[in-house]
Amino acid sequence: MFRTVLIANRGEIAIRIGRACRELGLATVAIYGEEERDAPHARYADAAFVIEAGEATRPYLNGPGLLAIARRAGAEAIHPGYGFLAENAEFARAVLDAGLIWIGPAPDAIAAMGDKIAARKLAGEAGVPLVPGTNAAVATPEEAAALGAGWGFPLALKAAGGGGGRGFRVARTAAEVPDAFAAAAGEGQRFFNNPTLYAEKYIEAPKHVEIQILADRHGGVIHLGERECSTQRRHQKLIEEAPSPAVDADLRARMGAAATALARAVSYEGAGTLEFLLDADKNFYFMEMNTRIQVEHTVTEEVTGIDLVKAQLRIAAGEPLPWRQEEIALRGHAIECRINAEDPARGFAPTPGTITEYKEPGGAGIRIDGAAERGFVISPSYDSMIAKLIARGSDRGEAIARMRRALGEYLIGGVASTIPFHQAVLAHPVFVEGRAATDWIERDGVGRDLPPAELPPAAEDTPAPQAREYTLEVNGKRFAVRLFADADPAASPPNGARPATSRQRATPKGGGKAAGGGDGALISPIQGTVLRVAVEEGAAVKAGALICVVEAMKMENEIAAPRDGTVRDLAVATGETIKIGAKIATIA
Ligand code: ADP
Ligand code: ADP
Ligand code: MG
Question: Which stretches are tagged as biased composition: Low complexity (predicted)?
Fold first, then answer.
């Protein structure tokens, strides 16, 4: 086996991979962007190298830089984790061309599955049922509208290169097609450098059920059962569990057979996931394949007892799978909650900032995959995940009870988190009864009535900590001491309490999209980059009309007018960065 692995990622997944390497006796090399020099993932590795962005938009996307570090550090293999370069076939090819081992499938398999149109074609040929849709690009909104008229609306418009919920729009009527088309193509271009769209029938209220597979170089392919990921916001997963309450042994065997057939068809190697939609009649339809480890791989590990990252490493070293399909058994139940720095009460707006208090839960059946700590900065440059909280139980009821208990123990201060949202979900009959479908959070408004998170002011506005000199007398002896205090006492309360609430952001209670002050001032609830300004100075707008789109943490946040009025003092322009609390315009 190789001896040194370069981990081309950051955050929790970099540590997760590092832990697997350590258990196998492998040395690890971390990379970090300059601002993450002291980040836990960089500290965890045996060696850590700074990486600059170079030609890329983020340091962690700098392929040539990574290869140079691998050479310098003597790494023999590269693990990409998820996101960043994990599904970049060119980078995988460059790794192989440099004589290194790529811990993942062959570049051809990544490329075949990375283009969702090509993937649909291959899946169809392998006999896997597909969501009704096109197996070719849809070139114009008119063409898309005609498809919708044929299949019946709603219509899903999806970027061929899309992922992470981006490049995906739904048109409920023909009239909504032009806007949905433009938005999906725009995101496809911006995030994936590919504006190509395809269309699918939008399945109403399906469940998201996916199959984990493992394949070795010797023709061995097995599946490890399913995960259900129906609790989503904006088509992004928030809670995942294994097994799915909707899947019985027969359905599992049929979905598993479809998944392994497609994996064989592309000579797949490594860990991969085939995502399906399951409709109310338990018909399943292939959606896409993720050719990497997934965020929610943990729940499968908890119920199968198989360490998926160690399996990836062993497969990449050329070992055959040590398990036959009949040996895979699911025991008990596991649930994962994504703990994100987002405010559920403000439409899940990301809240970058510094974590001022941090205490993780523990005890029986609880696992945390994280990379956060007190003082850790949730940067607007990366996605908003703080940690993954996983609860395992002998059955679903026990897993739910443990998760609720652990959520109550979890303490995170300084940034908003999805913890209150998860508490609401885990207490909700729709979730408890296993009835969740992908639209249920938005339809039932779960989390909407939570109070907005009360946060210390944005880091930029907080003066640096100040030292004070004191002289203390103890038992007749005098000591000179220097006390360091945060300039804002609200930022670090005593006794590990939640941050004090004396200072709030200039955002009102209520919807995450609109943020309006009493005097008609429209205030940005987030820090980010202005992607688009939808109005001009002097325009008349109705409440709810789009004013601008701000991108933060890889999400597009629509800022809408809080009331009817005229746009005055428009203070933003496309391409500018904007801070939390900054004034966007006055709607008067
Ligand atoms: P997975 O497919 O592993 O479940 P997701 O579908 O949630 O993961 O995310 C796919 C990719 O998008 C991941 O590689 C992840 O890095 C990235 N991602 C995760 N969360 C977000 C987010 N809130 N916004 C944008 N991208 C995200
Ligand atoms: P991504 O690459 O962003 O993960 P997917 O194609 O996997 O995109 O879809 C993500 C989510 O979007 C699904 O879990 C589901 O909620 C929704 N979705 C995608 N396609 C459809 C469809 N045709 N009908 C209904 N929902 C869909
Ligand atoms: Mg997906």
Answer: 449-465
